[in-house]
Design brief:
The protein has 428 residues and is of the alpha+beta class. It has 2 domains: 4-82 and 146-218 and 354-422, FAD/NAD(P)-binding domain (3-Layer(bba) Sandwich), CATH 3.50.50; 220-352, no CATH class. Helices cover 28% and strands 25% of the residues. Strands 4, 5, 6, 12, 13, 14, 15, 16 and 17 form a 9-stranded mixed beta sheet that branches. Strands 1, 2, 8, 9, 10, 11, 18 and 19 form an 8-stranded mixed beta sheet that branches. Strands 3-7 form a two-stranded antiparallel sheet. Strand 14 (278-282) and strand 15 (289-293) form a beta hairpin. The model has no long low-confidence stretch (mean pLDDT 96). The structure holds flavin-adenine dinucleotide (FAD). Flavin-adenine dinucleotide (FAD) binds at residues 11-17, 36-39, 44-46, 48-53, 169-170, 200-204, 208, 223, 225, 347-350, 372, 374-380.
Protein backbone atom coordinates (compact mmCIF):
# COMPACT_ATOMS: atom_id res chain seq x y z
CA UNK A 1 0.00 0.00 0.00
CA UNK A 2 1.23 3.49 -0.81
CA UNK A 3 1.93 5.93 2.02
CA UNK A 4 -0.58 8.76 2.18
CA UNK A 5 -1.13 12.11 3.85
CA UNK A 6 -4.58 13.22 5.04
CA UNK A 7 -6.03 15.94 7.23
CA UNK A 8 -8.02 13.66 9.57
CA UNK A 9 -7.49 9.94 10.25
CA UNK A 10 -10.32 8.16 12.10
CA UNK A 11 -9.24 4.85 13.67
CA UNK A 12 -12.25 2.53 13.77
CA UNK A 13 -15.16 2.13 11.35
CA UNK A 14 -17.83 1.03 13.79
CA UNK A 15 -20.86 3.27 14.23
CA UNK A 16 -18.80 5.80 16.27
CA UNK A 17 -16.02 6.31 13.71
CA UNK A 18 -18.49 6.36 10.82
CA UNK A 19 -20.68 8.96 12.57
CA UNK A 20 -17.68 11.19 13.37
CA UNK A 21 -16.47 10.94 9.75
CA UNK A 22 -20.02 11.60 8.47
CA UNK A 23 -20.33 14.90 10.38
CA UNK A 24 -16.78 15.93 9.43
CA UNK A 25 -17.41 15.31 5.71
CA UNK A 26 -21.09 16.14 5.31
CA UNK A 27 -21.69 18.90 7.88
CA UNK A 28 -18.23 20.47 8.11
CA UNK A 29 -17.25 19.80 4.47
CA UNK A 30 -13.83 18.43 5.41
CA UNK A 31 -12.43 16.92 2.22
CA UNK A 32 -9.58 14.83 3.54
CA UNK A 33 -10.98 12.31 6.00
CA UNK A 34 -9.74 8.70 6.10
CA UNK A 35 -11.54 5.96 8.06
CA UNK A 36 -9.10 3.19 8.94
CA UNK A 37 -10.20 -0.22 10.19
CA UNK A 38 -8.70 -3.68 10.15
CA UNK A 39 -12.20 -5.10 9.69
CA UNK A 40 -15.04 -4.34 7.30
CA UNK A 41 -17.12 -1.39 8.60
CA UNK A 42 -19.76 -2.14 11.27
CA UNK A 43 -18.60 -5.73 11.85
CA UNK A 44 -17.27 -5.70 15.42
CA UNK A 45 -19.36 -4.40 18.39
CA UNK A 46 -21.62 -2.46 16.05
CA UNK A 47 -22.78 -5.74 14.49
CA UNK A 48 -23.97 -7.00 17.91
CA UNK A 49 -26.19 -4.10 18.90
CA UNK A 50 -29.80 -4.67 19.96
CA UNK A 51 -30.43 -1.40 18.02
CA UNK A 52 -32.81 0.01 20.63
CA UNK A 53 -32.99 3.69 21.45
CA UNK A 54 -34.42 5.76 24.31
CA UNK A 55 -34.09 9.11 26.00
CA UNK A 56 -34.68 7.47 29.41
CA UNK A 57 -31.67 8.05 31.67
CA UNK A 58 -31.35 8.86 35.35
CA UNK A 59 -29.40 12.07 34.61
CA UNK A 60 -30.42 15.00 32.40
CA UNK A 61 -26.96 15.08 30.73
CA UNK A 62 -27.53 11.68 29.13
CA UNK A 63 -31.14 12.58 28.37
CA UNK A 64 -30.08 15.75 26.50
CA UNK A 65 -27.35 13.84 24.68
CA UNK A 66 -29.67 11.04 23.54
CA UNK A 67 -32.49 13.51 22.75
CA UNK A 68 -30.10 15.28 20.37
CA UNK A 69 -29.16 11.96 18.84
CA UNK A 70 -32.80 10.93 18.36
CA UNK A 71 -33.47 14.36 16.75
CA UNK A 72 -30.71 13.51 14.27
CA UNK A 73 -32.14 10.00 13.74
CA UNK A 74 -35.54 11.59 13.00
CA UNK A 75 -33.91 13.96 10.52
CA UNK A 76 -31.90 11.22 8.79
CA UNK A 77 -34.95 8.92 8.71
CA UNK A 78 -36.89 11.60 6.89
CA UNK A 79 -34.07 12.48 4.53
CA UNK A 80 -33.36 8.84 3.64
CA UNK A 81 -36.97 7.72 3.30
CA UNK A 82 -36.50 5.73 6.50
CA UNK A 83 -33.81 3.49 5.11
CA UNK A 84 -32.98 2.33 8.66
CA UNK A 85 -36.59 1.40 9.68
CA UNK A 86 -36.96 3.62 12.73
CA UNK A 87 -39.80 2.52 15.02
CA UNK A 88 -41.30 4.71 17.75
CA UNK A 89 -43.09 2.39 20.18
CA UNK A 90 -41.29 3.65 23.29
CA UNK A 91 -39.97 1.58 26.20
CA UNK A 92 -42.26 -0.25 28.63
CA UNK A 93 -40.96 -0.53 32.19
CA UNK A 94 -43.03 -3.06 34.09
CA UNK A 95 -43.09 -3.89 37.80
CA UNK A 96 -45.01 -5.92 40.33
CA UNK A 97 -44.39 -3.23 42.96
CA UNK A 98 -47.37 -1.29 44.34
CA UNK A 99 -45.48 1.92 44.87
CA UNK A 100 -43.65 3.37 41.88
CA UNK A 101 -43.06 6.82 43.34
CA UNK A 102 -39.29 6.13 43.49
CA UNK A 103 -39.21 4.98 39.86
CA UNK A 104 -41.15 7.99 38.64
CA UNK A 105 -39.12 10.42 40.75
CA UNK A 106 -35.89 8.97 39.32
CA UNK A 107 -36.95 9.97 35.79
CA UNK A 108 -35.83 13.51 34.88
CA UNK A 109 -38.76 15.88 34.29
CA UNK A 110 -37.91 16.47 30.62
CA UNK A 111 -38.71 12.85 29.68
CA UNK A 112 -42.19 12.21 28.28
CA UNK A 113 -43.71 9.29 30.24
CA UNK A 114 -47.15 7.78 30.80
CA UNK A 115 -47.90 5.89 33.99
CA UNK A 116 -50.38 3.02 33.99
CA UNK A 117 -51.48 1.93 37.49
CA UNK A 118 -54.84 0.43 36.58
CA UNK A 119 -54.36 -3.34 36.17
CA UNK A 120 -57.30 -3.73 33.78
CA UNK A 121 -55.85 -1.00 31.56
CA UNK A 122 -52.38 -2.58 31.75
CA UNK A 123 -53.84 -5.93 30.63
CA UNK A 124 -55.62 -4.29 27.72
CA UNK A 125 -52.73 -2.11 26.62
CA UNK A 126 -49.87 -4.56 27.23
CA UNK A 127 -51.56 -7.98 26.94
CA UNK A 128 -48.33 -9.99 26.78
CA UNK A 129 -47.21 -9.04 30.30
CA UNK A 130 -47.82 -11.35 33.26
CA UNK A 131 -51.03 -10.41 35.11
CA UNK A 132 -49.17 -9.70 38.37
CA UNK A 133 -47.66 -6.56 36.84
CA UNK A 134 -49.14 -3.71 38.89
CA UNK A 135 -47.54 -0.67 37.33
CA UNK A 136 -46.19 0.23 33.92
CA UNK A 137 -44.21 3.32 33.07
CA UNK A 138 -44.17 3.93 29.34
CA UNK A 139 -41.22 6.00 28.13
CA UNK A 140 -42.60 7.61 24.99
CA UNK A 141 -39.40 8.51 23.17
CA UNK A 142 -37.89 5.15 22.32
CA UNK A 143 -37.92 2.39 19.74
CA UNK A 144 -35.46 0.69 17.46
CA UNK A 145 -33.54 1.23 14.25
CA UNK A 146 -31.46 -0.89 11.93
CA UNK A 147 -27.97 0.16 13.05
CA UNK A 148 -26.40 -1.61 10.07
CA UNK A 149 -28.55 0.37 7.63
CA UNK A 150 -27.86 3.61 9.49
CA UNK A 151 -24.09 2.95 9.33
CA UNK A 152 -24.32 2.06 5.66
CA UNK A 153 -26.30 5.22 4.91
CA UNK A 154 -23.82 7.48 6.70
CA UNK A 155 -20.93 5.68 4.98
CA UNK A 156 -22.47 6.29 1.55
CA UNK A 157 -23.10 9.94 2.36
CA UNK A 158 -19.59 10.55 3.70
CA UNK A 159 -18.00 8.84 0.70
CA UNK A 160 -20.09 10.96 -1.65
CA UNK A 161 -18.76 14.00 0.24
CA UNK A 162 -15.13 12.95 -0.33
CA UNK A 163 -14.37 10.75 2.71
CA UNK A 164 -12.44 7.52 2.10
CA UNK A 165 -11.70 4.29 3.92
CA UNK A 166 -8.62 2.15 4.27
CA UNK A 167 -8.51 -1.45 5.44
CA UNK A 168 -5.65 -2.00 7.86
CA UNK A 169 -4.65 -2.33 11.48
CA UNK A 170 -3.07 0.73 13.11
CA UNK A 171 -0.14 -0.82 14.99
CA UNK A 172 1.77 2.27 16.18
CA UNK A 173 1.52 6.05 16.19
CA UNK A 174 4.41 8.52 16.21
CA UNK A 175 3.97 12.24 16.50
CA UNK A 176 5.98 15.41 16.05
CA UNK A 177 4.24 18.23 14.21
CA UNK A 178 1.93 15.60 12.60
CA UNK A 179 0.79 12.09 13.44
CA UNK A 180 2.38 9.16 11.61
CA UNK A 181 0.29 6.00 11.79
CA UNK A 182 1.86 2.63 11.00
CA UNK A 183 -0.83 0.60 9.23
CA UNK A 184 -0.62 -3.15 8.63
CA UNK A 185 -2.82 -3.85 5.61
CA UNK A 186 -3.53 -7.00 3.62
CA UNK A 187 -1.04 -5.81 0.95
CA UNK A 188 1.68 -4.95 3.44
CA UNK A 189 2.62 -2.06 5.72
CA UNK A 190 2.15 1.63 4.96
CA UNK A 191 2.20 4.98 6.73
CA UNK A 192 -0.67 7.45 7.04
CA UNK A 193 0.36 10.98 8.02
CA UNK A 194 -2.42 13.11 9.54
CA UNK A 195 -2.90 16.48 11.28
CA UNK A 196 -5.73 15.08 13.37
CA UNK A 197 -6.30 11.57 14.75
CA UNK A 198 -9.65 10.33 16.07
CA UNK A 199 -9.66 7.30 18.35
CA UNK A 200 -12.93 5.47 17.58
CA UNK A 201 -11.56 2.02 18.34
CA UNK A 202 -14.48 0.74 20.46
CA UNK A 203 -13.31 -1.95 22.91
CA UNK A 204 -9.72 -1.27 21.76
CA UNK A 205 -9.86 2.48 22.46
CA UNK A 206 -7.62 2.16 25.53
CA UNK A 207 -5.01 0.33 23.42
CA UNK A 208 -5.10 3.02 20.69
CA UNK A 209 -4.95 5.75 23.36
CA UNK A 210 -1.75 4.17 24.70
CA UNK A 211 -0.27 4.42 21.18
CA UNK A 212 -1.06 8.14 21.48
CA UNK A 213 0.61 8.27 24.90
CA UNK A 214 -2.58 8.54 27.00
CA UNK A 215 -4.38 6.24 29.43
CA UNK A 216 -8.17 6.02 29.24
CA UNK A 217 -10.25 4.69 32.17
CA UNK A 218 -12.15 2.11 30.12
CA UNK A 219 -13.33 -1.38 30.91
CA UNK A 220 -15.01 -3.95 28.70
CA UNK A 221 -17.90 -6.10 29.87
CA UNK A 222 -19.26 -8.85 27.66
CA UNK A 223 -23.05 -8.96 27.30
CA UNK A 224 -25.14 -11.52 25.49
CA UNK A 225 -28.44 -11.60 23.62
CA UNK A 226 -30.51 -14.16 21.82
CA UNK A 227 -32.74 -13.78 18.80
CA UNK A 228 -35.11 -16.56 17.75
CA UNK A 229 -37.98 -17.35 15.46
CA UNK A 230 -41.11 -17.09 17.57
CA UNK A 231 -42.93 -20.00 15.94
CA UNK A 232 -45.47 -20.02 18.81
CA UNK A 233 -46.37 -16.34 18.20
CA UNK A 234 -45.75 -15.62 21.89
CA UNK A 235 -44.81 -11.99 21.33
CA UNK A 236 -47.34 -9.58 19.77
CA UNK A 237 -45.72 -7.93 16.78
CA UNK A 238 -46.70 -4.47 18.06
CA UNK A 239 -45.27 -4.99 21.57
CA UNK A 240 -42.90 -2.14 22.48
CA UNK A 241 -39.43 -2.88 23.86
CA UNK A 242 -40.38 -4.18 27.32
CA UNK A 243 -38.27 -4.42 30.45
CA UNK A 244 -38.89 -6.22 33.72
CA UNK A 245 -37.87 -3.81 36.49
CA UNK A 246 -37.99 -6.47 39.22
CA UNK A 247 -35.27 -8.73 40.53
CA UNK A 248 -36.45 -12.33 40.29
CA UNK A 249 -35.95 -16.00 41.00
CA UNK A 250 -36.10 -18.32 38.01
CA UNK A 251 -38.81 -20.98 37.92
CA UNK A 252 -36.67 -24.07 38.62
CA UNK A 253 -38.18 -27.25 40.03
CA UNK A 254 -37.19 -27.97 43.66
CA UNK A 255 -34.83 -30.69 42.45
CA UNK A 256 -33.16 -28.38 39.89
CA UNK A 257 -32.85 -25.62 42.48
CA UNK A 258 -31.10 -27.81 45.02
CA UNK A 259 -28.71 -29.20 42.35
CA UNK A 260 -27.80 -25.65 41.34
CA UNK A 261 -27.37 -24.56 44.94
CA UNK A 262 -24.75 -27.29 45.46
CA UNK A 263 -22.59 -26.22 42.48
CA UNK A 264 -20.26 -23.30 43.41
CA UNK A 265 -20.23 -22.02 39.79
CA UNK A 266 -24.00 -22.23 39.32
CA UNK A 267 -25.46 -21.48 42.73
CA UNK A 268 -26.07 -17.85 41.76
CA UNK A 269 -28.77 -19.16 39.40
CA UNK A 270 -30.71 -20.61 42.34
CA UNK A 271 -30.84 -17.25 44.12
CA UNK A 272 -32.24 -13.86 43.21
CA UNK A 273 -31.22 -12.47 39.82
CA UNK A 274 -31.11 -8.77 38.98
CA UNK A 275 -33.79 -6.77 37.18
CA UNK A 276 -33.59 -5.83 33.51
CA UNK A 277 -34.75 -8.83 31.45
CA UNK A 278 -35.90 -7.33 28.17
CA UNK A 279 -37.75 -8.42 25.07
CA UNK A 280 -38.99 -7.04 21.79
CA UNK A 281 -40.23 -8.25 18.41
CA UNK A 282 -37.65 -7.93 15.63
CA UNK A 283 -38.20 -7.53 11.90
CA UNK A 284 -41.33 -5.40 11.77
CA UNK A 285 -45.06 -6.23 11.91
CA UNK A 286 -44.81 -9.15 9.47
CA UNK A 287 -41.59 -10.63 10.89
CA UNK A 288 -41.46 -13.63 13.26
CA UNK A 289 -38.23 -13.07 15.19
CA UNK A 290 -37.84 -11.74 18.71
CA UNK A 291 -34.83 -10.55 20.71
CA UNK A 292 -34.18 -11.18 24.40
CA UNK A 293 -31.42 -9.71 26.55
CA UNK A 294 -30.31 -9.43 30.16
CA UNK A 295 -27.15 -7.47 30.98
CA UNK A 296 -26.36 -9.23 34.27
CA UNK A 297 -22.68 -10.02 33.70
CA UNK A 298 -20.31 -7.83 35.74
CA UNK A 299 -16.93 -9.44 34.99
CA UNK A 300 -14.37 -7.34 33.15
CA UNK A 301 -12.95 -8.89 29.95
CA UNK A 302 -9.84 -8.34 27.90
CA UNK A 303 -11.38 -7.76 24.43
CA UNK A 304 -10.67 -10.61 22.02
CA UNK A 305 -9.91 -9.98 18.33
CA UNK A 306 -12.19 -12.94 17.62
CA UNK A 307 -15.18 -12.59 19.93
CA UNK A 308 -15.79 -16.34 19.69
CA UNK A 309 -12.76 -16.70 22.01
CA UNK A 310 -14.33 -14.60 24.76
CA UNK A 311 -14.22 -16.61 28.03
CA UNK A 312 -17.40 -14.92 29.35
CA UNK A 313 -19.56 -16.54 26.66
CA UNK A 314 -22.01 -18.65 28.64
CA UNK A 315 -23.60 -21.56 26.78
CA UNK A 316 -26.44 -21.59 29.30
CA UNK A 317 -27.35 -17.93 28.58
CA UNK A 318 -30.17 -18.81 26.10
CA UNK A 319 -31.90 -20.96 28.71
CA UNK A 320 -31.36 -18.39 31.48
CA UNK A 321 -32.71 -15.47 29.46
CA UNK A 322 -35.71 -17.45 28.21
CA UNK A 323 -36.51 -18.48 31.79
CA UNK A 324 -36.10 -14.87 32.95
CA UNK A 325 -38.30 -13.47 30.20
CA UNK A 326 -40.95 -16.18 30.77
CA UNK A 327 -41.41 -14.88 34.33
CA UNK A 328 -42.48 -11.63 32.78
CA UNK A 329 -44.13 -12.75 29.52
CA UNK A 330 -45.84 -16.08 30.30
CA UNK A 331 -46.43 -16.99 26.63
CA UNK A 332 -42.66 -17.62 26.42
CA UNK A 333 -42.89 -20.50 28.97
CA UNK A 334 -43.21 -23.33 26.41
CA UNK A 335 -39.76 -22.35 25.11
CA UNK A 336 -38.24 -23.30 28.49
CA UNK A 337 -38.95 -27.01 27.96
CA UNK A 338 -38.80 -26.94 24.12
CA UNK A 339 -36.23 -24.32 23.06
CA UNK A 340 -36.87 -22.54 19.76
CA UNK A 341 -35.31 -24.55 16.92
CA UNK A 342 -34.06 -21.48 15.03
CA UNK A 343 -32.14 -19.09 17.22
CA UNK A 344 -28.91 -17.15 17.40
CA UNK A 345 -26.89 -16.51 20.54
CA UNK A 346 -24.52 -13.57 20.21
CA UNK A 347 -22.83 -10.86 22.23
CA UNK A 348 -20.20 -8.18 22.42
CA UNK A 349 -18.40 -5.77 24.68
CA UNK A 350 -19.88 -2.82 26.46
CA UNK A 351 -16.78 -0.58 26.35
CA UNK A 352 -17.51 1.72 29.27
CA UNK A 353 -16.33 4.12 31.93
CA UNK A 354 -17.16 3.56 35.59
CA UNK A 355 -20.02 6.08 35.43
CA UNK A 356 -21.36 4.64 32.12
CA UNK A 357 -21.04 7.95 30.31
CA UNK A 358 -19.13 8.24 27.01
CA UNK A 359 -15.78 9.92 26.40
CA UNK A 360 -15.97 12.36 23.50
CA UNK A 361 -13.54 15.21 22.90
CA UNK A 362 -9.86 16.14 22.87
CA UNK A 363 -7.14 13.90 24.29
CA UNK A 364 -4.05 15.34 25.97
CA UNK A 365 -2.02 15.57 22.77
CA UNK A 366 -2.91 18.40 20.43
CA UNK A 367 -4.86 17.18 17.43
CA UNK A 368 -5.88 13.86 19.04
CA UNK A 369 -9.56 13.17 19.85
CA UNK A 370 -11.60 10.30 21.23
CA UNK A 371 -15.14 9.05 20.65
CA UNK A 372 -15.49 5.94 22.76
CA UNK A 373 -17.02 4.29 25.85
CA UNK A 374 -20.38 4.03 24.11
CA UNK A 375 -21.27 1.02 26.28
CA UNK A 376 -24.80 -0.26 25.53
CA UNK A 377 -25.96 3.01 23.97
CA UNK A 378 -23.68 3.49 20.93
CA UNK A 379 -26.29 2.91 18.23
CA UNK A 380 -28.79 5.33 19.76
CA UNK A 381 -26.20 8.00 20.57
CA UNK A 382 -23.90 7.67 17.55
CA UNK A 383 -25.34 10.70 15.75
CA UNK A 384 -24.96 13.08 18.72
CA UNK A 385 -21.57 11.54 19.56
CA UNK A 386 -20.28 11.93 15.99
CA UNK A 387 -21.66 15.46 15.71
CA UNK A 388 -20.07 16.41 19.05
CA UNK A 389 -16.70 14.90 18.14
CA UNK A 390 -16.73 16.72 14.78
CA UNK A 391 -17.65 20.00 16.51
CA UNK A 392 -14.67 19.61 18.89
CA UNK A 393 -12.33 18.96 15.94
CA UNK A 394 -13.65 21.87 13.87
CA UNK A 395 -13.85 24.33 16.78
CA UNK A 396 -17.62 24.79 16.35
CA UNK A 397 -20.01 25.75 19.18
CA UNK A 398 -20.52 22.87 21.61
CA UNK A 399 -23.71 21.75 23.37
CA UNK A 400 -24.02 22.26 27.13
CA UNK A 401 -23.25 18.61 27.91
CA UNK A 402 -19.95 18.64 25.98
CA UNK A 403 -17.74 19.24 29.01
CA UNK A 404 -19.32 16.47 31.06
CA UNK A 405 -18.94 13.96 28.26
CA UNK A 406 -15.29 14.86 27.69
CA UNK A 407 -12.22 13.81 29.66
CA UNK A 408 -12.69 17.00 31.72
CA UNK A 409 -15.38 15.29 33.81
CA UNK A 410 -12.71 12.98 35.25
CA UNK A 411 -11.41 15.97 37.21
CA UNK A 412 -14.91 17.02 38.34
CA UNK A 413 -14.99 15.20 41.69
CA UNK A 414 -18.39 16.70 42.64
CA UNK A 415 -20.05 15.29 39.54
CA UNK A 416 -18.32 11.91 39.88
CA UNK A 417 -19.41 11.68 43.53
CA UNK A 418 -22.98 12.62 42.58
CA UNK A 419 -23.07 9.90 39.91
CA UNK A 420 -21.60 7.30 42.23
CA UNK A 421 -24.08 8.17 44.98
CA UNK A 422 -27.06 7.88 42.62
CA UNK A 423 -26.32 4.15 42.21
CA UNK A 424 -28.21 4.11 38.90
CA UNK A 425 -26.10 4.11 35.76
CA UNK A 426 -28.92 3.60 33.28
CA UNK A 427 -27.31 0.30 32.28
CA UNK A 428 -29.52 -2.12 30.34
C1 LIG B 1 -24.94 -7.25 23.08
C2 LIG B 1 -25.00 -5.76 22.81
C3 LIG B 1 -26.22 -5.13 22.68
C4 LIG B 1 -26.28 -3.75 22.46
N1 LIG B 1 -27.50 -3.15 22.30
C5 LIG B 1 -27.56 -1.82 22.03
C6 LIG B 1 -28.81 -1.18 21.86
O1 LIG B 1 -29.86 -1.80 21.93
N2 LIG B 1 -28.80 0.16 21.57
C7 LIG B 1 -27.65 0.89 21.47
O2 LIG B 1 -27.71 2.09 21.24
N3 LIG B 1 -26.45 0.30 21.64
C8 LIG B 1 -26.37 -1.03 21.92
N4 LIG B 1 -25.17 -1.63 22.10
C9 LIG B 1 -23.96 -0.79 22.08
C10 LIG B 1 -23.43 -0.52 20.69
O3 LIG B 1 -23.46 -1.69 19.92
C11 LIG B 1 -21.99 0.00 20.85
O4 LIG B 1 -21.95 1.07 21.77
C12 LIG B 1 -21.44 0.50 19.53
O5 LIG B 1 -21.59 -0.48 18.52
C13 LIG B 1 -19.97 0.87 19.69
O6 LIG B 1 -19.50 1.31 18.45
P1 LIG B 1 -17.98 1.66 18.24
O7 LIG B 1 -17.86 2.18 16.87
O8 LIG B 1 -17.51 2.47 19.39
O9 LIG B 1 -17.21 0.25 18.40
P2 LIG B 1 -17.02 -0.93 17.36
O10 LIG B 1 -18.24 -1.21 16.59
O11 LIG B 1 -16.39 -2.06 18.12
O12 LIG B 1 -15.95 -0.36 16.33
C14 LIG B 1 -14.60 -0.18 16.67
C15 LIG B 1 -13.79 -0.50 15.45
O13 LIG B 1 -12.44 -0.12 15.69
C16 LIG B 1 -11.62 -1.02 14.98
N5 LIG B 1 -10.27 -0.95 15.54
C17 LIG B 1 -9.92 -1.12 16.84
N6 LIG B 1 -8.58 -0.97 16.98
C18 LIG B 1 -8.09 -0.71 15.74
C19 LIG B 1 -6.78 -0.47 15.25
N7 LIG B 1 -5.71 -0.47 16.05
N8 LIG B 1 -6.63 -0.27 13.92
C20 LIG B 1 -7.72 -0.27 13.10
N9 LIG B 1 -8.97 -0.48 13.51
C21 LIG B 1 -9.16 -0.70 14.83
C22 LIG B 1 -12.30 -2.36 15.18
O14 LIG B 1 -11.92 -3.27 14.16
C23 LIG B 1 -13.76 -2.00 15.13
O15 LIG B 1 -14.34 -2.19 13.85
C24 LIG B 1 -25.09 -3.00 22.34
C25 LIG B 1 -23.84 -3.63 22.46
C26 LIG B 1 -23.79 -5.00 22.70
C27 LIG B 1 -22.46 -5.65 22.83
Amino acid sequence: MADQEVEIAVIGAGIAGIAAAYYLCVEHKRKSVLLIDSRQPMTYTSAQSGDNYRNWWPHHTMTSFTNDSIDELDRLAEESNDVFNMTRGGYVLATRQDDVTGIIESIPGDIDVAHYGDRELIRKTFPALTTDIKNVVHIRRGGDISGQQLGQYMLERLRAAGGRKLQGDVTAVESDSKYRLAVAGADGPSTVTADVVVNAAGPFAARVARMLGTDLPLKNIYHQKIAFEDHLNAIPRDMPFSIDLDAKRLGWSEEERSMLAEDPDLKWLAGELPSGTHCRPDGGPHGRWVKLGWAYNKKISEPQEDMANEPAIDQSFPEIVIRGAAEFIPALRPYVSAPPPRFSHYGGYYAMTEENWPLIGPLDNKGAFVIAALSGFGSMSACAAGKLCAAHICGSPLPEYAVDLSLDRLTNSTLLAELEASGNKGLL
